[in-house]
# Entry
Amino acid sequence: MRITAFNGSPKAERGNTNVMVEAFLAGAREAGAEIENVFLSRKKIGPCKACNACWMKTPGRCAQRDDMDELLEKFAASDVVVFATPVYVDNVTGLMKNFMDRLIPIADAHWEKDENGECRHVRRHDKPAKIAVISNCGFPQQSHFQVLRLLFRRLSRNIHAEVIAEIYREAGALLSAPAPDLQSLVSNYREVLRKAGREVVEHSRLSAATAAELERPLLPSGNFVDEYMKLVNQRCDDILKKLDA
Ligand SMILES: Cc1cc2nc3c(=O)[nH]c(=O)nc-3n(C[C@H](O)[C@H](O)[C@H](O)COP(=O)(O)O)c2cc1C
# Structure
C-alpha cells in the first residue's frame, strides 16, 4: 500500500502539522506501507488558470509545466492520500487550496450522478480510493474544524474517494511547546497517531477507540479553554510590552 501525505503548512518540517503527519506515517510504515511526506511549500505550483485544457485539449494533462506534473503522478499512484493542513481563517491554507484546485486533471470532463442524485465529474483514475485528513489549529476547541470536516467530505465525494480517517488537534501550539511537563503528553499523543497510521494500513479505517483517543484533550483539565486563553493573552501582553520598551 502506498500512502502519500501532502502538507500545506508554510512551516513545512517545522510545523505542528508535521508533528502529527510524521507520527502517523511512522505507524503506517511500521505496518508495511510505502510512505511519502510531501511539503507543498517546497514545490512550485501555479494557480489554476481555468483554461480547461486538462479536460478538453489534452485530457488529464494540465497546460502548466510545474511541480504539479510530479505531484499529480504521486496523487494518482497512492492508495491513500493524506491531506495535511493547519486551519487558516477557518479553512485550509492557501497552499493547500491551490494544490486542491490543481487536482482537477484527475477528473474527466463528463458529468454523472452519484448515489444521491448529485452531479459530479466522472473519475479518470482508480486511485486514490481513500483519503485521510490531518489538521491542527490554534484555538483550543474542536469546533474550529467544522469547515474542514465538511470540505473534505465534499472533496472525497467529488474525487470518488472515501474518508477513512480525520485527525484534528486543537491548541496545536502545544505540540511544539518546549515545556518539559508537556513532553510526555505530546509523546503519548504521538503514540496514538502511530497507532492510527498502523490501523489505516491494517484495517483501512480507524477503530472507534483510537478515534476517541485522538480527540481527547492534550491537557486533562475541566477548565482548559479558560486557562489556555488566559495564558495566551498573558503571553501576548508580555511580547507587546517587550516590543514597546
Ligand atoms: C494566517 C493564519 C490564520 C490562522 N487562522 C486560524 C483559525 O481560523 N483558527 C484557528 O484555530 N487557528 C488559526 N491559525 C493558527 C494555526 O492554525 C496554528 O498556528 C497551527 O498550529 C499552525 O500549524 P503549522 O505549525 O503546521 O503551520 C491561523 C494561523 C495563521 C498564520
The CA atoms of residues 2 and 34 lie 5 Å apart. The longest strand covers residues 162-169.
